């Protein structure tokens, strides 16, 4: 495979970052300085700055099923902060936020570059939620929510809203304003009783236990970086 893909699939960095490493002459394949487009296989000796890539201190990418009551902050003086909750050996930080009174999927990493790329609004990256409200949902509510709601001084972007129960709906957003779903519901006179995020881009909550975390898989990272590289 191409050297930039080889490096990105180790989780060391994105393909774009790998290209920069190659261009600066910091990557070797079997002792030879790599070039853009060079090919590498698993049996090859790939090194960055002279060190085997397997020995490099790579980045950490985690998925957490955040419980209600945990705050998405790195400020350790805040009781119930997400960093202390996980207790990871690396200094990690959340990618975006999930309200203290909300639950579900949140990603954490020590890779500052990927944080900025995921959070850029022009990326229009999907996030999927399941929401329970305090009274029966109407067709007017579903239509209005999907077309956009005036909150925080402007209209929200059109989104996908699908009713799943009398008081439960699934929602796919491509933006992330402060307490957006709660504010949108309130505009129609509804109060959110439960809010769970189930997906961020290609990363799904799946069967991850409540309050548990796991490392992202190589397959998840490969697809994630490919999506980011395409924007």
From TrEMBL:
InterPro entries: PsdUridine_s_RsuA/RluB/E/F_cat, PsdUridine_synth_cat_dom_sf, PsdUridine_synth_RsuA/RluA, PsdUridine_synth_RsuA/RluB/E/F, PsdUridine_synth_RsuA/RluB_CS, RsuA_PseudoU_synthase, S4_RNA-bd, S4_RNA-bd_sf. Residues 1-59 form the RNA-binding S4 domain. Keywords: Isomerase, RNA-binding. Its EC number is 5.4.99.-. It comes from Paenibacillus mendelii. This is Pseudouridine synthase. CDD domains: PseudoU_synth_RluF (cd02554), S4 (cd00165). It holds the Pfam family PseudoU_synth_2. Belongs to the pseudouridine synthase RsuA family. The keyword tRNA-binding does not apply. The keyword RNA-binding applies.
